[in-house]
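Q: What residues go here?
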């Protein structure tokens, strides 16, 4: 299949690209600069030489019409996988830094496809657990999160802080996609992938750990001794490995039955203390890890059974065929991948 992948320089997108090429798809990926394209190309020389990997430069997805050129290709695209969206909390202006690239990025690519790429049959969009979760309910014992849930966040709440801004950006962007489908009745169907915290090895280019992607930062922080005196609060207790998330993005267009569905890709529960314990067990060289008596990083009172929401990932197993990786494999592989970057 001829596929357009947006944001190819990112953590999740790099793994998605890897699987796309392994499955024999022919890919154009968008990146912001030629330099980023060259770095990816160096990792996939054979695919590039065969014409199975090419690049389109899209410097800012928040600009109207940003994807007008990128959606046009010869041979024409049959599928689009849209992952590009800001995930960080260094925010000065929630609208400009988070909401606009997420929402305009999503509606923009859908408009460009409708206008100029009628051969596209499926658009897979990286949404998030952020678009399902209801933060006002806290740990919500008794509730089971599934694809039925929607974050009720308002535009006003989006501006309260960077975390709310991020969750709102994902919620509004996904809503905008489903609204587009309903109002514009395009030729394509949509599938969204809604992962919670994504952990695992990095295969995208970063110079050093200062530019590590947001969801992996806590793993590096633990190994770097930053939690020696107190383990940071876990916050979201659900996680998934990046390789499963990437697989889900590819299966979501390879499988016709994924049409017009959301997919809550979640592997299981974790706490920050579990991350510490896994690092301690597998990497004795990190000497500044918290100990069993260090405070913080535990499950809420009542534990998983009585103190925390449930989750339902059945659809991702039944429709996408996912086999979830274990937390230990994910954390160990993540740490190994950080070591050449200075861990
Ligand atoms: P990364 O930060 O590694 O990837 C984000 C990607 O989006 C990068 O390629 C980045 O390009 C690109 N991007 C951001 N803003 C713009 C912009 N204005 N114009 C062009 N490109 C832009 O993080 P992830 O891989 O984790 O995130 C990928 C997707 O997954 C996002 O949609 C995120 O919301 C979603 N997600 C991630 C989760 C996680 O735990 N990691 C959980 C749930 C969802 P550049 O690097 O050049 O800035």
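A:
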């Amino acid at each position: 299949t001829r596929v357009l992948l947006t944001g190819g320089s990112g953590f999740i997108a790099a793994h998605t690209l890897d699987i796309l090429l392994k499955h024999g798809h022919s890919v154009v990926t968008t990146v912001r600069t030629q330099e980023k394209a060259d770095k990816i190309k160096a990792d996939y020389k054979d695919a590039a030489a065969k014409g199975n990997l090419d690049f389109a430069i899209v410097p800012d997805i928040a600009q109207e019409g940003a994807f007008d050129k990128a959606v046009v290709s010869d041979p024409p695209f049959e599928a689009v996988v849209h992952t590009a969206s800001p995930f960080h909390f260094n925010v000065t202006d929630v609208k400009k830094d988070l909401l606009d690239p997420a929402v305009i990025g999503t509606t923009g690519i859908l408009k460009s496809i409708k206008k100029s790429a009628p051969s596209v049959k499926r658009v897979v969009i990286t949404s998030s657990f952020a678009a399902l979760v209801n933060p006002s309910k806290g740990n919500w014992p008794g509730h089971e999160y599934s694809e039925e849930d929607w974050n009720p966040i308002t535009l006003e709440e989006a501006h309260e802080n960077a975390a709310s801004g991020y969750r709102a950006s994902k919620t509004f962007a996904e809503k905008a996609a489903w609204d587009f489908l309903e109002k514009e009745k395009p030729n394509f169907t949509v599938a969204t992938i809604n992962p919670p915290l994504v952990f695992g090895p990095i295969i995208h280019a970063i110079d050093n750990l200062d530019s590590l992607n947001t969801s992996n930062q806590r793993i590096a922080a633990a190994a770097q001794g930053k939690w020696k005196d107190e383990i940071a609060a876990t916050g979201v207790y659900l996680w998934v490995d990046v390789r499963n998330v990437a697989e889900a993005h590819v299966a979501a267009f390879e499988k016709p039955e994924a049409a017009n569905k959301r997919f809550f890709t979640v592997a299981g529960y974790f706490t920050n203390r579990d991350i510490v314990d896994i690092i301690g067990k597998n990497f004795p060289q990190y000497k500044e890890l918290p100990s069993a008596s260090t405070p913080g990083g535990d499950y809420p009172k009542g534990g998983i059974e009585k103190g925390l929401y449930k989750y339902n990932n059945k659809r991702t197993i039944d429709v996408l065929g996912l086999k979830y990786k274990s937390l230990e494999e994910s954390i160990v592989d993540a740490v190994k991948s950080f070591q050449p970057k200075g861990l």
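A: Context that may help when evaluating the design: The chain has a mean pLDDT of 98. The chain is about 40% helix and 15% strand.
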